[in-house]
Specification:
- The structure is a single chain.
- Helices cover 51% and strands 13% of the residues.
- The chain is of the alpha/beta class.
- The protein is elongated.
Length: 299
């Protein structure tokens, strides 16, 4: 197929390359020229504007957005709608909030254009391993785009989830679960690191990948992280979040689901960003007040 692709960041550029490796033609656009030139060098067709990109696509057009969630998605959709015709398709492959995706689906449908919200998992490894895709939208439009999904995903790695918004909803829950899994691994490895035993954490991350009930790709990534830096001394203990964990917690509250692990994992990331914790100081002070427990003084 021939597809337009907007956004050539660390995931977008690799997705374009994977599409081209499987014989698809890709017309690319990015806010900065360097990434366009790199994609063109690798076989893509460059464009200097959204209008130019659309003009280089076939009669029924597919445009994939791989841009940051929020205003960037809306600005691109608003700019594309006057350029597209009835039955053309916009795919939002970023981490958009599912309720916003539902509204975008209604908005584009009123213009005769289909909107597909596609949750994309795979990170920087997707070029080699493939991307797990969870997408929602009008079924006929999704079916039309299946050759693209099939190329980007590994075998059995893509799924139609339902009406607009459902793809990003499933991806949101996926990322919430990811928060919990990573937190559990992190705590387990710290217990081993603090133990009186001289445990080779890299070796543990390897052996757990074979036959263990907790084996996963995250363990392979843990092993890679520990390989060159066994004590992780080069990494600051600061953990950001992309928003998906927050949305998962909000959804859990909305649907009355007791999502203890995901919620605790999200709040633990907030703790990592504090230079010092007033809450922990208050806990120490209260223990001292009611029980005379010793407190450690600041230097």
């Amino acid at each position: 197929m021939k597809i337009g692709f907007i956004g050539l960041g660390k995931m977008g550029g690799n997705m374009v390359q994977r599409l081209m490796n499987d014989g698809h033609e890709v017309v690319v656009y990015n806010l900065t020229q360097k990434e366009i030139d790199e994609a063109v060098k690798n076989g893509a067709v460059g464009s200097d504007s959204l209008k130019d990109l659309v003009s280089k696509l076939p009669e029924r057009k597919i445009v994939w957005l791989m841009v940051p969630s929020g205003d960037a998605v809306d600005k691109n959709i608003d700019a594309l709608l006057p350029l597209l015709k009835k039955d053309d398709i916009i795919i939002d492959g970023g981490n958009s909030f599912y309720k916003t995706s539902m509204e975008r689906g209604k908005k584009t449908y009123e213009k005769g254009v289909y909107y597909i919200d596609c949750g994309t998992s795979g990170g920087v490894w997707g070029l080699k391993e493939g991307y797990c895709l969870m997408y929602g939208g009008e079924k006929s439009a999704c079916d039309y785009c299946e050759p693209v999904f099939k190329t980007l995903a590994p075998e059995n790695g893509y799924q139609y989830c339902g009406k607009p918004g459902s793809g990003h909803f499933v991806k949101m829950v996926h990322n919430g679960i990811e928060y919990g899994m990573m937190q559990s691994y992190a705590e387990g490895f710290e217990i081993m690191e603090k133990s009186p035993f001289d445990i080779d954490l890299k070796a543990v991350s390897e052996v757990w990948r074979y036959g263990s009930v907790i084996r996963s790709w995250l363990l392979e990534l843990a092993g890679l992280a520990l390989k060159d830096d066994p004590k992780l001394s080069k990494i600051k203990d600061y953990v950001d979040d992309s928003g998906e964990g927050r949305w998962s917690v909000d959804a859990a509250m909305e649907f009355d689901v007791p999502a203890h692990v995901i919620t605790a994992s999200l709040f633990n990331r907030f703790r990592s960003r504090q230079d010092e914790s007033f809450a922990m100081k208050m806990l120490a002070a209260l223990r001292n007040q009611f029980g005379g427990h010793a407190v450690k003084k600041e230097d």
